[in-house]
Amino acid sequence: MAVLRVQDLVVDFATRQGNARVLDHISLEIDEGEILGIVGESGCGKSMTALSIMGLVPSPPGNITAGSIKLDEREIAGASSEQMRTIRGNEIGMIFQEPMSSLNPVFTVGEQIAESVRLHEGADSRAAFARAVEMLQAVGIPEPEKRARAYPHELSGGMRQRVMIAIALACNPRVLIADEPTTALDTTVQAQIFDLLEELQKNRGTAIVLITHDMGAVAQLADKIAVMYAGRIVETGAVDDVLSNPRHPYTRGLIACVPHLQVKPTKQRHPLLEIPGVVPSLTELGEGCAFSPRCDRMHSKCLQHQPVLETVPDTGDNSHRVACWVTEARADDV
Amino acid sequence: MSDQIGEREYLSVQELKVHFGGKSLFGSGSIVHAVDGVSFDIAKGTTFGIVGESGSGKTTTALAIMRLTHITSGAVFLDGTNIGALQGEALRQARCAFQIVFQDPYSSLNPRQRAFDIIRDPLDLMDVGKPEERAEMVHALLEQVGLRPEQGALFPHQFSGGQRQRIGLARALATKPDLIVCDEPVSALDVAIQAQILNLMSRLQKELGLTYLFISHDLGVVQHICDEIAVMYLGQIVERADRMTLFSNPMHPYTKALLASVPSLHADRKNRATRQRLKGDPPSPINLPKGCRFASRCPLAQEQCHQMSPPLRELENGHFVSCHLADA
After folding, report:
1. Residues in chain A with pLDDT < 70?
2. Helix extents (H) in chain A
3. What is the model's pLDDT at position A158?
4. How many CA atoms lie within 13 Å of A166's alpha carbon, on the beta-carbon side?
5. Nearest Cβ partner of A269 from B54, B224, B277?
6. How remote is the C-alpha of B253 from its chain's centroid?
7. Which residues of A touch B243 (CB under 8 A)?
8. A199: closest CA among B164, B234, B277, B36?
9. Rounded CA gap, A74 and A3, in Å?
């Protein structure tokens, strides 16, 4: 059963240029112990999806216009800030991108972990601190008792991100949202953090939403993938299906535009495939497909009608869905 | 390697050391060995990559070659001239030949200058061409990096990240340099934009015969764009080889670990458990261990590794490795 179910979520932002629909009918589902990867360029709505789930959409100017977010069948979209405060950190944890700026520089990391335990579980400070040390150990920090008394600036980037994970996990949340958790880190440290996330998912059954722009990270960690563009999901499905048989031109572009490390490099080097142009401004979206100005397969229908997510025919299960007129036309041709 | 010496030495870095600290206001402070004896050559028209974790000294190496930080010892020969020893006006004039593109296109452009003026500045400062021809030269540079001449009237905030990095490239190209040092030029860009800049850089190299020193932590990008690669760890080069050799036959345990840490698109998910991981963080560049600098994290380390620092040895033709345990 799905731990977290987002259905037809619409989030609007009032801007001076008019209404910006930052999330346009987003639907996601994640089961216990499952990792869902959300990919896309910046400005596609990945982080906004995370903030909506956490009830952290700044309002005003933001507003959840429609849709539902269900945590274990309990509606949390539009919950009061008091209700959200008991849910955040307790049932849904979040890891942010910048470990340095998300930690409070004037408190020791032990205190920062203990704080959420005290607030959510009403533990006394001694027990909370003991839990903090235990959590530091669980995320693989050596000498946890000593480190718990350290301030953020005394730790390396990788250790700080581990502390962030320890804070997010201190109250054993059912869902963990990781927003680009390794972007600021070296690949060797990134690998350690990925191993840690995987361990959590296996041992505690935590459902993880991994927000990233790195297809490699998704391939390695995630079970399901959702590719976002201009506030919509353009392709979704099981990671193996989508990566081995990407149907949306944007997904294909995202995979091909990055030089992936090859074990046996070829002598001949070809120019990388480019996705021309940039992500459109959300206040200037027209009638048709938002990706059409950057798409090399665009035709007249793409300019007039917004494509909807539809199941890709001839796939193993029905989970692989894509929103593109061209793939539909091509499937008809065959 | 010996048969190529003539063409190899366009840029020759010899035993470069950059140390920070030492004497402080309160007596003798500790010394940070940021770059500690780095040597390499780059042939004209090729791309040399330096990879490593943060703190390995790759950016400091680039800055020292650019003469943007002091050089403690060692020499940097560019086309036969030791630019490491130049001072004052001679250094300023020599700068025409080597330029840099920075990592962050948001902070490396003056927000109060229009793109046109940003690119024109180096022409005026270095007295390139006749003053009345310079506007035309700026327009040509804008077109060369894929921008329209009329976009020169815009301010940096009116451009996207990729376009800003194009302006950074145009500014670096203005004085017609031969060497361009690129310090993580695509790391701050969105994935889809990286390809545009990398393709532009390859095209410019072909058209203008540029030599690149390319600093990056992204091994996929380095493999795509570099001809020869040096892997740095704690201020030293631990392995150096051409592109084909380094990726298909890495010999240093650190290089192997780095390669293994990159998430692959075709990840064999069943082998997750057997993956080897580097543990811990690099030791401090202040109190360096007396043996191999990587020994504390090395899965293969033996007694001798902790006792003796391994020299950089040439194990195969052009393949240099600094490890006691590596064998050809």
Report:
1. 314-316, 327-334
2. 46-54, 81-87, 99-102, 109-121, 125-138, 144-147, 157-169, 187-204, 215-221, 239-244, 249-256, 300-304, 325-333
3. 80
4. 32
5. B224
6. 22
7. 265
8. B277
9. 10
Contact A259 B223 (CB under 8 A): yes
C-alpha angle A90/A96/A99, rounded to 5°? Answer: 115
Contact between chains at A220 and B263 (C-beta distance less than 8 A)? yes
Rounded to whole angstroms, how far apart are CA atoms B279 and B298?
A: 9
Longest dimension (CA), chain B: 68
Task: Return the closest-CA partner of residue B302 out of B313, B291, B316.
Answer: B291
Q: Give chain B's residues under pLDDT 70.
A: 1-8, 24-28, 267-276, 328
**What residue type is assigned to position B61 of the chain?**
T
CA distance A192 to chain B (A): 7
* Rounded Cα–Cα distance for residues B13 and B41 (Å): 6
Letter for the amino acid at B69?
T
Interface check for A33 against chain B (CB to CB < 8 A): the answer is no
ipTM score here? Answer: 0.81
Chain A nearest-CA residue for B200: A271
Is B291 in contact with B307 (CB distance < 8 Å)?
yes
Any B CB within 8 A of A245 CB? no
Amino acid B212 reads: Y
Residue A66's closest CA among A128, A131, A124, A12?
A12
Contacts of B217 (CB under 8 A, 6+ apart): A186, A187, B51, B52, B53, B54, B184, B187
Comparing alpha-carbon positions, the chain B residue that sits nearest to A191 is B261
The pLDDT of residue A41 is 87
CA distance A254 to chain B (A): 6
**Do A191 and B260 make contact, defined as CB atoms within 8 angstroms?**
yes
pLDDT tens sequence across A38-62: 999 888 899 899 999 999 888 888 8
Q: CA-CA distance, B235 to A99, in Å (whole number)?
A: 25
- Give the tokens for residue B71: 């050089």
Q: What is the pTM of this model?
A: 0.87
Backbone angles phi, psi at A46, to 5 degrees: -60, -55
Strands (E) located in chain B: 11-24, 27-42, 47-51, 73-78, 81-82, 98-101, 179-183, 211-215, 228-233, 236-242, 313-316, 319-321
Question: CA-to-CA distance for B241 and B11, rounded, in angstroms?
Answer: 16
Handedness of CA B296, B300, B301, B303 (dihedral sign): positive
Taking each helix axis from N to C end, the angle separating A125-138 and A157-169, rounded to the nearest 10 degrees, works out to 130
Matching residue, tokens 């203990």: A114
